[in-house]
Amino acid sequence: MTLRLYDEKNERMLIERNYPDSQFFNDGQIKECITHLKLPYGNCFYHEICFDNIHIGFGNISLNRKLELYVETDFDSVELHFTLKGKSSATSENFQKTVCFDSHQHNIIYAHQMQGKMEFEDREIQMLEINLAPDFFKRFLPEDSEIFNKFRAAIDRQQSSLISQNHNKINLEMYQILNDIMHCNRKGIFKRIFLEAKITELLLLQLEQFLENRSSRLSISKKDEEKIYAVRDHIMNNLNKNCTLIDLAHKVGTNEFTLKKGFKAVFGTTVFNFWNDAKMEQAKKMLLETDLNINEISDIIGYKNPRHFSAAFKKKYNMIPSNLKG
After folding, report:
1. Domains of the chain with bracketed CATH
2. Is residue 153 pLDDT above 70, yes or no?
3. What is the residue-wise DSSP string for 135-196?
4. CA distance 125 to 65
5. How far is Cα 15 from Cα 55, in angstroms, rounded to an integer?
6. By three-state DSSP, how is residue 85 classified?
7. What is the pLDDT of residues 300-315, one digit of tens each?
8. Domain HTH araC/xylS-type, which positions (predicted)?
9. Nearest to 70 by CA among 132, 114, 102
């Protein structure tokens, strides 16, 4: 299994990767590789994780101008694709049309020995891709739906295809799982078990969303939708701070009413319920994976009074933090 990535003039090879090759370090049940590229037109960070039937890749590209790259692969793969930020497109003879992704979109792609061009339009690109062996993927594909039967048939014919011609929006549950995958600190077999469970859960959410045909046709404009995602990003990057709805709305250039309505429409919950849940998830992670004490964790996530933190944690998880800390 070989991947080759060339620069925009298709003259200089940037990456040639045989999966898994010597650049991957072995961590028991998994293999990992972190790639940093510094180029005249920008920088790239890409983290890869491999184990049986599964390849995970995530990272970001910072550009100072539009970029074109050329890619070749000699293998078949089913890709769970998530574009977290930025616009990109892929053109190949394998597909009948150019496949374009925008921020916060996902789809499932079957690719048969790809050869084509990738274009990155925005200055900041962030994505996560999970590639599964086709036979392994088909084990999870329900057999009682036209959309899934067509996709299975395309795989069997080795005909590159999208599971849906319309991309869907990454919902709140998906974002939480993607974050767990990208920030997993476990090692060896425990990391593999954790990632396998998260990938299965993520695939379940994708298949359910495609089956229900919920393509997030929201009653808000695309411009306002981008502001809603910007508020989510601000919250995730500032869990220890407290802001009013008006403050958050002003940060992204909207008003309180639009923020409340839009956030509920996009994520199915209120701004402050989301913020509280994110704080509690971060606290639980620190309780389980660090040596920080409860007072330190309480302070990190923005609670001045540890008793208030303990009460909020118990309300969320039906146990006090000290029980989890053990």
Report:
1. 2-212 (2.60.120.280), 222-325 (1.10.10.60)
2. yes
3. HHHHTTS-SS-HHHHHHHHHHHTT--EES-SS-EE--HHHHHHHHHHHT----HHHHHHHHH
4. 12
5. 17
6. strand
7. 988 889 999 999 999 9
8. 229-326
9. 114
3-state secondary structure of 61: strand
Of 95, 168, 178, 200, whose CA–CA distance to 129 is shortest?
178
Written as one letter, the residue type at 270 is: T
Give the CA dihedral 94, 151, 177, 257, nearest 10 degrees.
Answer: 90
Q: What is the largest CA-CA distance in the chain?
A: 62
pTM over 0.70: yes
Candidates 24, 21, 47; CA nearest to 35 is 47
DSSP E strand stretches across the chain: 2-6, 13-18, 25-27, 30-39, 42-51, 54-63, 67-73, 76-85, 88-92, 99-101, 105-112, 115-120, 124-132, 161-162, 168-169
Average pLDDT over residues 146-150: 91
Residue with tokens 């293999």: 31
| Cβ(25)–Cβ(49) below 8 Å | no
CA distance 152 to 134: 9
End-to-end CA distance of the chain: 46
pLDDT of 42 strictly over 90: no
Cβ atoms of 30 and 49 closer than 8 Å: yes
- Secondary structure letter of residue 69 according to DSSP: E
- Tell me phi and psi for residue 92, to 5 degrees: -155, 155
Do the bridges between strand 88-92 and strand 115-120 make them parallel or antiparallel, or are there none, so unpaired?
A: antiparallel
